[in-house]
Specification:
alpha+beta; four-stranded antiparallel beta sheet; three-stranded antiparallel beta sheet; 4 helices
């Protein structure tokens, strides 16, 4: 079992750093909006709504770049959840699983948010998804593999069993290239 190396104040504040950063970014963009709303050409409601939406979109985009979600403990989670090198339709891929936590806490039934990455054999990113793994008293539900799909179990999804076509589509590759705008 992996021991959490963070102790003291660092370990206690870690879950709150990202939300506090988002709140600070929202406050900064709110102050920008107050200054922008004083411009004479923003007197109509339509212009103010357009400016508000633009400032919110810029704020979310900047926040996703400045405050990205950090994932770690990749070796442990890849092993625990059944990742590794797999072959689908003659194409070999690496399946890497990392978490927002340093280890799985079975006492609290908590593994944090897990990032599932499908990588080409030369470590280029092919697809990426995030999910909350389902933990049982025997441990987490591991990834199941078929001939042309993989199935992972997401506690936060409407359907806990999520099937992903393998190898991933061009759309999956494209989504993986852009920063995640929301946590």
């Amino acid at each position: 079992m992996h021991i959490n190396s963070k102790n003291g104040l660092d370990g206690l504040l870690e879950p709150y750093v990202r939300p506090l950063g988002w709140i600070a970014a929202a406050a900064a963009f709110f102050l920008i909006f107050i200054q922008v709303s004083r411009l004479p050409w923003l007197k109509t409601i339509h212009h103010r709504m357009g400016a508000s939406l633009l400032i919110i979109m810029v704020g979310i985009f900047c926040g996703s770049i400045v405050f990205p979600q950090h994932y770690g403990a990749c070796d442990e989670f890849t092993k625990e959840l059944g990742g590794g090198v797999r072959t689908f339709k003659g194409e070999s891929v690496k399946i890497e699983l990392c978490s927002t936590r340093n280890h799985i806490n079975y006492n609290l039934m908590d593994a944090g948010r897990v990032r599932l990455r499908i990588l080409f054999m030369n470590d280029r990113l092919w697809a990426e998804r995030t999910f909350m793994p389902v933990l049982t008293s025997q441990g987490p539900l591991t990834i199941k593999y078929g001939e042309d799909y993989l199935t992972y179990y997401d506690e936060a999804s409407d359907e806990s069993e999520v099937r992903m076509k393998m190898p991933p589509s061009y759309w999956e590759w494209l989504k993986a290239k852009f920063p995640k705008l929301l946590p």
